Amino acid sequence: MPRIPAPPLPKALQPRPKRPGQDVEAGAATPVEAGITVVDWLDERTALSPGIRWLMWRKVPRGINWAYTLGSATLFAFLNQAVTGVFLAMYYRPDAAGGAYESIRNINDNVFLGQFVHGMHKWGASVMIILIFLHMGRVFFYGAYKYPRELTWVIGVVLVILTLAMGFTGYLLPFDQRAYWASVVGININAGGPFVGPFLSNFLFGGADFNATTLSRFYAIHMLVIPGAMAALIGAHLYLVTKLGITAPPWLKPGADDTDHALAEAEV
Questions:
Q1: What is the pTM of this model?
Q2: Which of 66, 169, 187, 213 places its Cα 20 to 30 Å from the Cα of 93?
Q3: Phi/psi at 207 (5° precision)
């Protein structure tokens, strides 16, 4: 006679599923294996792993010291400015009729952690300017601007100019008396430049004199134009630093391995 199948066990008597890390049945993937599978799936379609290996595992010369971290510190300061600037832009109003000043006061007095974020953005601008000049000085005194890194140096100089322009355009945004008159003085100084000075002054003012358009123009330049240009140039700067490598301190004589490596890089 055919055997009658046994009735299913009640849910309370069924065995509990095994926790991650315990033995699993054949053919099933552990959480770690599942994560690797996802990474492999993405890498197969994007081919990012060779670029990441090229970026992370590369040769560096002997004698590296803390002065070489100034570039990374400047990049961190830029990211701090970008993140805090986005949060401030959520509450800021570029209104010359009192809205700009009141929005800054609202950020400092009423918004949760608003004064903290505003302080990080305000003092972070000064920190970024200090760091980028220290980084520029290290590159100059170490001779890192020489062949084949001239383009890296030129992009870095442009980044310094954009950083100063970022600080100048952001100084007006609180729109208090100090910010107003400091910006007027700065624009008038630019107007005294040869050839392009008057045109630059009219562009920044948005007319012949300070008006409501000036604040909106400074805000657009500070939030959109300069950060976009800086992000693109930082990407190009990092690419060249990774491709061409970094220079050893000038007081160290290159060894045989360093010379062979430098020749290989020059040939590439």
A1: 0.80
A2: 187
A3: 160, -160
